[in-house]
């Protein structure tokens, strides 16, 4: 374990956050895996005390800084394309109350990112039926419930674009009851999920830099 008397926890958190952000931005690692690998890179161990580990907000801020420095020529276009694709699917899934979440919403999505949607409806199985009727081949897995109440079924598939790399799309299926209180902003005014109107506003904003910012992501 890391010896507290020899290492400044704040400095370790900063170094781990920077290393994890680079892995996420360049290699598409998830936060948990990137944090673990970054910890091993920085201190030689993947299991260290919580006081030495950055939270996801700190890592997210480092991702933004990394993208601004090293990916400013490419990341904005990638993000816009993914938001446009997300909105396309949200419009197709409108009867099932879709919401966008994750990196595509908060603005840190890169070329290795996927689109994460959440659908809230009385019968989540209807989403699977819709995809089958649309000849969409999907895989079934589970995602941890955003409120920590077990797991929810998730449908995943590739959205293929002519002449471009396909984009992974994941749809987590929730009941309508789960939506109650789910769109409240946190203490920093951020929303964990956004409906189609909010995503459309983000796209309009990115096309008009003089408009006031819409604070939905981080």
Give a quick rundown of the structure:
The protein is α+β, with helices and mostly antiparallel strands and 218 residues long. It is built from seven helices and six strands, in the order ααααβαβαββββα.
Overview of the structural elements:
- It is built from seven helices and six strands.
- The protein is of the alpha+beta class and 218 residues long.
- The chain has a six-stranded mixed β-sheet with strand order 3-4-5-2-1-6.
- Strand 3 and strand 4 (151-159) form a beta hairpin.
- Helix 1 crosses helix 2, helix 1 crosses helix 3 and helix 4 runs antiparallel to helix 7.
- Distance from N terminus to C terminus (CA atoms, Å) equals 32 Å
Number of strands: 6
Weakly predicted, low-confidence segments: 1-5, 208-218
Briefly, what CATH class of the largest domain? Alpha Beta
Overall 3D geometry? Answer: globular
Give the number of domains: 2
Helix content: 40-55%
Spatial extent as radius of gyration: 19 Å
Write the layout of secondary structure elements.
Blueprint: H1 9-27, H2 31-43, H3 56-70, H4 75-92, E1 98-101, H5 103-106, E2 115-121, H6 125-133, E3 139-144, E4 151-159, E5 167-175, E6 193-194, H7 196-207
Parallel strand pairs: 2-5
Antiparallel strand pairs: 1-2, 1-6, 3-4, 4-5
Helix pairs in contact: 1-2, 1-3, 4-7
